[in-house]
Each structure stands twice: as C-alpha cells, then as structure tokens.
Automatic annotation (TrEMBL):
Keyword Transferase included in the entry's annotation: yes
Job description of the protein: Catalyzes the conversion of 2 pyruvate molecules into acetolactate in the first common step of the biosynthetic pathway of the branched-amino acids such as leucine, isoleucine, and valine.
InterPro entries per the UniProt record, alphabetical: Acetalactate_synth_ssu, Acetolactate_synth/TF_NikR_C, Acetolactate_synth_ssu_C, ACT-like_dom_sf, ACT_dom, AHAS_ACT, AHAS_small-like_ACT
Highest taxon above the source species: Bacteria
Organism from which the protein derives: Hyphococcus flavus
PROSITE patterns: ACT
The entry's keywords: Amino-acid biosynthesis, Branched-chain amino acid biosynthesis, Transferase
Protein name (record): Acetolactate synthase small subunit
Cellular component GO terms, alphabetical: cytosol
GO biological process: isoleucine biosynthetic process; L-valine biosynthetic process
Binding partners and assembly: Dimer of large and small chains.
GO MF terms, alphabetically ordered: acetolactate synthase activity; acetolactate synthase regulator activity
Occurrences of domain ACT (ranges): 29-104
Family stated for the protein in its record: Belongs to the acetolactate synthase small subunit family.
Length: 188
C-alpha cells in the first residue's frame, strides 16, 4: 500500500474532548426527581450542557406540592457509558432525589402534546379535518380560515401529523416535549 492510499480521519471540530467510541449512541429519556427550589433546573441543564450534550426535549413541573418535589424529564443522546456518567453526576447534585432512566424500562410510557395551527380554505381545509380525524386530533379553535389542533401521542405520531399538515397550510407548531412514566405499581 502506498502512502497516497492511506486516509487519516479528519480532526474533530468539537471543542469538547473526544473519546474513543464506547458503543452505539442511543436516546435516553431521564426522569430527574428534584427538590422544587430556585436554581435547580439551571444546575441540572448546566451539568448536561457542560459535558457537550444536547437536550432534545425538556419538561419540568412540580409533582408533589407537600413534598416540594418536581419532575424534570430530559431527552438526550449518547453512548451507554456517557448516559451512565450523566445519570451518576445528576445523582450527586444536592437537590436531586432520584434519577430514573425511563428509556431503559421495558414498559414505560412516553407521550407528547402538540398544538398545530393550520391556515387553509376549500379542499385543503376539508383534508386537514380528515387527517385530524384519523390522528384523533381535536380542533381547539376554528375560524373561517384556520384550525388549531391538539394532538397527543408518541413523538412519531406527532411528527407524522405535522408532515401531513405541511402541504395543507401548516402555520405554527407548539410542542410540550416528552413526558414519561413507568407502568405498574412502581412510583417515582
């Protein structure tokens, strides 16, 4: 083999340290149960972003008023080793009570809610209503030239609904991000 046939990998463009491949990248849905106090969300998000990972979806709300706890649901991607590292580091933060890898659960439920505005008239308007009926989307608002649909389900369902509404006059999208919960008697 001559030197001209040898290829070298391109240097990384990332400002974050590059480690050797540690496995396939997977999506992780993490439920982080935290004390509901000022600054907790920024500490959790800062920990993940400081390590160079993107948060694809983030939802947070108080879940127990008496115990002053909130649930932060984070969707991110990484190798199994990196996901374990993120979980361990989140678990060490003082306001974090528990970290649950919901995506690792066999029968966890994941859902998302989206509000979709479609501006159309005539046949496109009728087709938008037919598609909404197939997806069991509710029309929350109707004007002579627009609809606002509410659709709930898996992200794939929401994405498919959006793709079908694009040629029918899709105007605006608002999404909650992923919500998740484990089935059965196991609680937070």
């Amino acid at each position: 083999m001559t030197a001209s046939n040898v290829t070298t990998p391109a240097p990384s463009q990332s400002v974050y340290p590059v480690t050797p491949d540690q496995g396939d990248v997977r999506e992780a849905v993490l439920a982080v149960i935290v004390d509901n106090e000022p600054g907790v969300l920024s500490r959790v998000v800062g920990l993940i972003s400081a390590r160079g990972y993107n948060i694809e979806s983030l939802t947070v709300a108080e879940t127990d008023v008496e115990k002053h706890t909130s649930r932060i649901t984070i969707v991110t991607q990484g190798t199994p080793a990196k996901i374990e590292q993120i979980k361990a580091q989140l678990g060490r933060l003082v306001p974090v009570r528990r970290v649950i890898d919901v995506s690792a659960e066999k029968d966890a439920l994941e859902r998302e809610l989206a509000l979709i505005k479609v501006v159309s008239v005539g046949d496109q308007r009728l087709e938008a209503m037919r598609v909404a009926d197939i997806f069991r989307a509710r029309a929350l608002d109707t004007t002579p030239t627009s609809f606002v649909f509410e659709v709930t389900g898996a992200r794939e369902k929401i994405n498919a609904f959006i793709d079908l509404m694009r040629p029918l006059g899709l105007s605006e999208i608002s999404r909650t991000g992923v919500l998740s919960i484990r089935r059965g008697v196991t609680g937070d």
